[in-house]
Structure formats: C-alpha cells, structure tokens
Write a structure and sequence with these properties.
The chain is an alpha/beta fold and 468 residues long. The chain has a domain at 360-468: Leucine-rich repeat, LRR (right-handed beta-alpha superhelix). It contains four helices and 32 strands. It has helices spanning 21-41, 46-67, 309-312, 331-334; strands at 91-93, 99-103, 110-111, 126-128, 133-136, 151-153, 158-162, 175-177, 182-185, 199-201, 206-207, 223-225, 232-233, 247-249, 254-258, 271-273, 278-281, 295-297, 302-305, 319-321, 326-330, 343-345, 350-354, 367-369, 374-377, 391-393, 398-401, 415-417, 422-425, 439-441, 446-447, 463-465. A hairpin with a 5-residue loop joins strand 1 and strand 2 (99-103). Helix 1 (21-41) runs antiparallel to helix 2 (46-67). The structure holds 2-acetamido-2-deoxy-beta-D-glucopyranose (12 copies). One 2-acetamido-2-deoxy-beta-D-glucopyranose is lined by residues 350, 352, 374, 376. Residues 166-274 form the Disease resistance R13L4/SHOC-2-like LRR domain. It comes from Vitis vinifera (Grape).
C-alpha cells in the first residue's frame, strides 16, 4: 500500500507565465558582471557586504535555474535581476534581505541539483521541491545547507543514488521527506543526529539494509514512514523510545523477526502498517493501550497466536487488515463492538469458534471478510443490523444451519459470499430484496429446495453460483 502525502507549503499560482529564457540569459550575464564589480569594491562597509550576499544568493538561484530544462522553467520566469527577494516566485526572504524559504512544490521543474550551491543560501529555513521531475544524486554538499533549515522536502521526484550521511548535519530539521524517489542503499545511521525531527518520510524508494537502531534517538518523531522499500532484518528495539509516534508505516518491505516487546511503549499510535513483510511471532500486544488506534494492517506476514487483548476494546478502530497470517483463537472471544469500524479482513487465518452477534452492532461496517478460516456454528441473524454492510465474505469455513433471512434487509449489500460451508435448508426468499446485489456465491453447501424466483430481481447480478 502506498502512502501519499501532500505538501502544503505553497499554493500553485493560477497564472502560468511564458518562459523568457533569452531575457533571463541577458539578465544573468548582467548580474554576473555586476556581481564581480560589487564584490571587488566591497572591502568593508556592512551595507555593501550584505548586498554582495544578496547578489550571491540571486546568482546562486539563477545559476541553478539556468541548469534546468528550458521547457520546465515557466514558473520561474519572475527569476531575473539581482534581487531574489524582489517578487521572485516561490522565494521568501528574511527582513535582512536574505532568502529564507524556497517553495517550488509542483512546478514541473526538470533537472538536477548539481548546480544549486547549498553553501550560498546561508539563512534558508525551508526547501520544498516536492512533486517535480528532478533527478540525479544529492551530493554530500547537502550538509552545507544552512544549519537553521527546519524543513526539507524532496518527495515525489526522480532522485537516485544513496541518501547522503551528511544530511545528519542538518540538526534543526523537523520535517524531512525523500519519499517517492529512486534512492538506494542504506538509511544512514547519522539520521539519528536529527533529534528535532517530527516527520521522516523515506517511503517508496529502493532503500536496502536494516533499519538503523539510531532511529530510536529521534524522540520527537510523530510520523515515520519507511514503507515500500527493500528493507530487511528486524525492527530495532530502540523504536520503543519513540513514545510520540502516531503514524508508523513499515509495510511492503522484507522485514523479519518478531515485533519487539518495546513496541508496547508506543501508546499513541493512530496508524500502524506492518503488511507484506516476513514478520513472525505474535501481533504487538498493547497497540491500542492509548485507545486511539484507527488503522492497523498486518496482512501477508507469518504472525501466529491470538488477537491482542488490547484490540478487543479498541473502539477507535476504523480499518483492520490481518488477512493471510496464521492467527488463531476463538473468534467470538477475540473481538468486541467497534462503533466506527469501516473495514475488517480476517480471512485466510486459523480462527475458530462461532461468529459473534456483536458484528451486528458495528453500525459503520461496510466490509467483513472472515473467509478461509475454521469457524463453525450458525450465521447470527443479528448481522442484519450492520446496515452499512456492502461485502460479506464467510466462504470456506464450517458454518452450518440456515442462511438467516435477516441478511435480506441489508440495503447496500452487493457481495454475498457464503460458498464452501455446510449451510443447509432452503435459500430465504428475503434475499430477493437485496436490490444492490451483484455477486452471490452459495456454492458447495447443503442447500435444498427450489431457487426462489425472487432471486430474479437481481438485475445487477453478475456471478450467481449455486452449484452444490
Ligand atoms: C536551452 O536553451 C538554450 C538557449 O536557447 C540552448 O542553448 C540549450 O541547448 C537549451 N537546453 C536544453 C536542455 O534544451
Ligand atoms: C504534481 O504537480 C503537477 C503539476 O506539475 C500537478 O498537476 C499535480 O497535481 C501534482 N501532484 C501532486 C500529488 O501534488
Ligand atoms: C558555493 O558558495 C560558497 C559560498 O558562497 C562559495 O565559497 C563556493 O565557492 C561556491 N561553490 C561553487 C562550486 O560555486
Ligand atoms: C561543502 O561540503 C563539502 C562536503 O561536506 C565540503 O568538503 C566543502 O568544504 C563544503 N563547502 C562549503 C563552501 O561549505
Ligand atoms: C530543537 O527544538 C528545540 C525546541 O523547539 C529548540 O530549542 C532547539 O534549538 C532545536 N534544536 C536545533 C538543533 O535546532
Ligand atoms: C531508550 O532511551 C534510553 C535513554 O536514552 C536508553 O537508555 C535506552 O537504551 C533506549 N532504549 C532502547 C531500546 O534503545
Ligand atoms: C519499554 O519497554 C521495555 C520492554 O517492554 C520496558 O522494559 C521498558 O521499561 C519500557 N521503557 C519505557 C520508557 O517505557
Ligand atoms: C485510516 O484509513 C482511512 C482510509 O484509508 C483514512 O481515510 C484515514 O485517514 C486513516 N486514519 C489514520 C489515522 O491514518
Ligand atoms: C474491556 O472493557 C471492559 C469494560 O470497559 C472491561 O471490563 C474489560 O476488562 C476490558 N478488557 C480489556 C482486555 O481491556
Ligand atoms: C476475502 O478474502 C479472501 C482471501 O483473503 C479473498 O480471496 C476474497 O476476495 C475476499 N473477499 C472479498 C469480498 O473481498
Ligand atoms: C477446525 O476446528 C475443529 C473444531 O471445530 C477442529 O477439530 C479442527 O482441528 C480445526 N481445524 C483446523 C485446521 O484448525
Ligand atoms: C453439516 O451439517 C449437518 C447438519 O445440518 C451435520 O449433520 C453434518 O455433520 C455437518 N457436516 C460437516 C462436515 O460439518
């Protein structure tokens, strides 16, 4: 599952100005020559020294602009002259006249950063290049960026190469996003120097190696996304020191081992994504201690053992995906009533026991999938009270008894899959009321009697399988 984030630093201008590269080139030559003049004559006075610095910043930006693909600079047509603080698009300045923010989110820029001299923007606080077509490596000179920089966003570009360990020099960073690029190699351990980080987005790259234990030094972290990479090895126990974490995305890697007990120290998680790794052992036991967990996925691992007790009372749950593991336990005992639960998939595990009538009290539930388990007993008629249900999949279990007629009052139900069970008796006429039903599978049961002619009301029915 990919994690999306949007960068909210800038509003796209409504107006696209035509590129004016020739004019720009003339200005560039002009400013270079003037720069030299100013520089040589600026022996002492503070005002002209400042002017030199300003010219230097403008020259730095113009040099970078000139290195970008010609066709992709339309947003930068206001970048000319010698004063980058004078209405240059995406540039904001300190009162002193030095550049403080570069905000070029979604500008369609194509090119590299090789010609952006990081040393020449000494007062930069934020650098936002999110969602452009920038490529190439990020040189070790990245460490020459201002020590004051708090936010660096290179997300959604085509950068490649290693993540430079020199990023660890930028100790004021609170937001660092390199997500959705082609970065390779390990996560440098120097990342542990960034003690003020609250958000670290490295997801959707080709990062390899293990998660450095230094990650546990980032005690201010709220959001950590390492998903969709090639990371291996276990979750370092030091993660337990990240007690402020609210979002933890580790899904779609090759992580292995058991979830460290120290995870129990993180009690404010709202979203925990562990899907599609090689984890073993039990699910983290105390994940809902703070009663704020909304989204939890652990799909496609080798988790064993029961559902954590803390999940039973976890009334904040919204979306839960635990399918394709070897989880076990009595399904009637393991789950409670979840007033905001929207989606739950427990399929392809080893749950046993009977279906609880409590599912009927999950009034927001749109999808319930418990197929491919070992559940038995009857389908509780109370399921008819889960009035938002759109998909119900209980196939490949040992359910017996009748199909409750109450399922016929679920107004939104469009998929009803009950095949491969031991259901008996006749198909209730009430199923004919399911006007949104598109897929019905009752195959491989012990159903008897006629097929009710009301089933002919299923105008949208695509897949209708009653074969015994
Ligand atoms: C950009 O435009 C200049 C001037 O017309 C030209 O010399 C240069 O080759 C162009 N570069 C690219 C990458 O198109
Ligand atoms: C990325 O930028 C393009 C314009 O270059 C814009 O159309 C698109 O909506 C942006 N996408 C995101 C995810 O911000
Ligand atoms: C980058 O800027 C710094 C400081 O202004 C300067 O000393 C250095 O020579 C510049 N480097 C390049 C490659 O232009
Ligand atoms: C920039 O960083 C490199 C590598 O860290 C360093 O060798 C160089 O001296 C720095 N340059 C400036 C102008 O700070
Ligand atoms: C980290 O944040 C604290 C509190 O906001 C601040 O006092 C400190 O100066 C910051 N550290 C750095 C290196 O910016
Ligand atoms: C958590 O932080 C404490 C104090 O800095 C340290 O002693 C401990 O080793 C850390 N725990 C882990 C598991 O890294
Ligand atoms: C973190 O978890 C470990 C193991 O469960 C425990 O021994 C330790 O006391 C916890 N640390 C904190 C700061 O809660
Ligand atoms: C949970 O997932 C839903 C649907 O994907 C999303 O809209 C919501 O923002 C997520 N909540 C959290 C806390 O991530
Ligand atoms: C769940 O909540 C009920 C009622 O609040 C309480 O009696 C029970 O001990 C809780 N169970 C767990 C596992 O926290
Ligand atoms: C339920 O889960 C099974 C196995 O994981 C899957 O094949 C099936 O498509 C799911 N049912 C629905 C309705 O999504
Ligand atoms: C399924 O449950 C029955 C009892 O209901 C038990 O005898 C059987 O071993 C279970 N099968 C599996 C594969 O867990
Ligand atoms: C199927 O259900 C019938 C009762 O309806 C029962 O006699 C039979 O043993 C069940 N078969 C299996 C394989 O569970």
């Amino acid at each position: 599952m990919a994690l999306e984030y949007s960068s909210s630093y800038s509003l796209l201008p409504q107006l696209i100005i035509t590129p004016c590269f020739f004019i720009f080139l003339i200005f560039l030559l002009y400013s270079i020559s003037l720069f030299h003049v100013t520089f040589t004559s600026a022996s002492t006075p503070t005002t002209s020294l400042l002017k030199v610095e300003q010219d230097q910043e403008a020259l730095t930006l113009l040099t970078w602009k000139a290195s970008l693909d010609n066709q992709t600079q339309s947003f930068l047509s206001s970048w000319f002259g010698r004063n980058s603080c004078h209405h240059w698009f995406g540039v904001t300045c300190h009162k002193s006249g030095s550049v403080s923010n570069l905000d070029l989110d979604s500008c369609g820029l194509r090119g590299t950063l090789h010609n952006l001299n990081f040393s020449s923007l000494p007062n930069l606080l934020t650098l936002n290049l999110y969602n452009n077509s920038l490529y190439g490596t990020i040189s070790i000179n990245i460490g020459n960026l201002s020590k004051l920089i708090t936010s660096l966003d290179f997300g959604f570009n085509h950068f490649s190469g290693a993540i430079s360990p020199q990023l660890g020099f930028l100790t004021s960073l609170s937001f660092l996003a390199l997500a959705s690029n082609n970065f390779r190699g390990p996560i440098p351990s120097s990342i542990g120097n960034l003690r003020n980080l609250t958000t670290l987005y490295l997801h959707t790259n080709k990062l390899s190696g293990s998660i450095p234990q230094e990650i546990g030094l980032l005690r201010s972290l709220n959001n950590l996304a390492l998903s969709t990479n090639n990371l291996i090895g276990p979750i370092p126990p030091s993660i337990g020191n990240l007690s402020s974490l609210t979002f933890l995305f580790l899904n779609d890697n090759e992580l292995s081992g058991a979830i460290p007990l120290e995870m129990n120290n993180i009690t404010h998680l709202k979203s925990l994504q562990l899907s599609e790794n090689n984890f073993i052992g039990q699910l983290p036991q105390e994940i809902c201690l703070g009663s704020v967990l909304e989204n939890f996925t652990a799909t496609g691992n080798h988790f064993t053992g029961p559902i954590p007790k803390s999940l039973k009372n976890c009334t904040s749950l919204f979306r839960v995906r635990l399918e394709r593991n070897q989880l076990t336990g009595d399904i009637a005992e393991s789950f409670g009533v979840y007033p905001t639960l929207n989606y739950i998939d427990l399929s392809s595990n080893n749950f046993y026991g009977e279906l609880s009538e409590k599912w009927g009290q999950c009034h927001m539930l749109t999808s319930l999938n418990i197929s491919n388990n070992n559940i038995s007993g009857a389908i509780p008629p109370q399921l008819g009270k889960a009035i938002q249900l759109q998909q119900l999949d209980l196939s490949a279990n040992h359910l017996s008894g009748k199909i409750p007629k109450e399922l016929g009052i679920l107004p939104l139900l469009f998929k009803l899959l009950l095949g491969d069970n031991n259901l008996s008796s006749s198909i209730p006429l009430e199923l004919g009321n399911l006007s949104n039903l598109e897929i019905l599978n009752l195959a491989s049961n012990n159903l008897s009697g006629p097929i009710p002619k009301q089933l002919g009301n299923f105008l949208k029915l695509q897949f209708f399988n009653l074969i015994k």
